[in-house]
Amino acid sequence: MKLLMCALLGVLLSQPAVAGSKVIATGGSTSIEGAAGGGIVPWAVINGYASSGQWSVNSFTSSVGVDDFTLQNFGIGASYNNQWEVSLTRQKFQLDTIGGDLQQDVFGLKYHIAGELLYTSLPQISVGLQYKKHRNSGLPLAVGAQKDSGTDIYLAASKVYFGAVAGRNLLLNATVRATKANQIGLLGFGGADHNHYQYMFESSAAVLLRPDLAVGIEFRQKPNNLAFADEEHWRDIFVGWFINQNFSVVGGYVDLGSIAGLAQQQGYYLALEATF
After folding, report:
1. Which is the most buried residue in 34, 90, 124, 186, by most CB within 10 A?
2. Cα-based angle 215, 19, 275 (whole degrees, multiple of 5)
3. C-alpha 129: how far from chain center
4. HEC states along 29-89?
5. pLDDT tens, the chain, 276 aa long
């Protein structure tokens, strides 16, 4: 993972990275799996501020802390031409109450198919994939997961509506994900009775109080593959401050439902991002 990150960063820095043409906040933040979007949902937007013929490079770290678990994420990403996005993310899921941790790597790729976030009637539409590989798969396989790796495929549509809420701009996003992942892959992929792709719905809504300040909500539907414990849908409320085109911070409240039989997992979300 570290070698892949260094190689990607080296290639990108050798190119003319002159990003900065896009409107502030239109690249979103970086979600927990590395794709541009909100906190828990990938949007159709492409990360960074690269426009036609430009590169953008970003790095991020985020943390989700709930009653019995802590999820830490860090990674790097790049975008080109406001059309392509690639990311590499390491996730560490600490089992604070049970003891130990789980880790996985996520490789993400996104392609902007059609439409525009701001200036056309057609929403921005993107397709993406996330290949996930567990680094210590003993526990997921022991609790009934079929595999320690898997690929999520998603289709997202995002659109900003000018002056829609008390004169403030409104961003709406809808994402459909095909997945076999248990707890986004941290508990492996598939189960004894459910080892096929299922289609999950995800959504986000954010009001821009100022061009650099957004407040929003998200919902993420989850599959329920493992017999030993129910998996519930995720929700969050967030505030994002896009300080400038190089730095942003997002914080919020998350409700992750039941995880591994431990109910009412609620707590905080915090993400920091640097973009160049």
Report:
1. 34
2. 50
3. 11
4. EECCCCCEECCCCECCCCCCCCCCCCEEEEEEEEEEEECCEEEEEEEEEEEECCCEEEEEE
5. 554 444 444 444 444 444 567 899 999 999 999 999 999 999 999 999 998 899 999 999 999 999 999 999 999 999 999 999 999 999 999 999 989 999 999 999 999 999 999 999 999 999 999 999 999 889 899 999 999 999 999 999 999 999 999 999 999 999 999 999 999 999 999 998 888 999 999 999 999 999 999 999 999 999 999 999 999 999 999 999 999 999 999 999 999 999 999 999 999 999 999 999
3-state helix/strand/coil string of 25-41: CCCCEECCCCCEECCCC
Q: Is residue 84 part of a domain?
A: yes
Helix (H, G, I), strand (E, B) or coil at 259: strand
90 inside domain? yes
Cα distances from 198 to residues 178, 182, 204, 222, in angstroms, run 5, 11, 20, 9
Number of domains into which the chain is organized? 1
Which residue bears the tokens 């239109």?
26
Supply the DSSP symbol for 11.
Answer: H
**Which CATH number is 56's domain given?**
2.40.160.40
Q: In the 3-class helix/strand/coil scheme, how is 130-157 assigned residue by residue?
A: EEEEECCCHHHHHCCCCECEEEEEEEEE
| Alpha carbon 63 to its chain's center | 12
Domain of 126? Answer: 2-269
Residue 276 is assigned to a structural domain of this protein: no
CA 92 – CA 186 distance, rounded (Å)? 9
Spatial distance between the Cα atoms of 206 and 267, rounded to a whole number of angstroms? 20
pTM of the model: 0.92
Is residue 274, in this structure, part of any structural domain at all? no
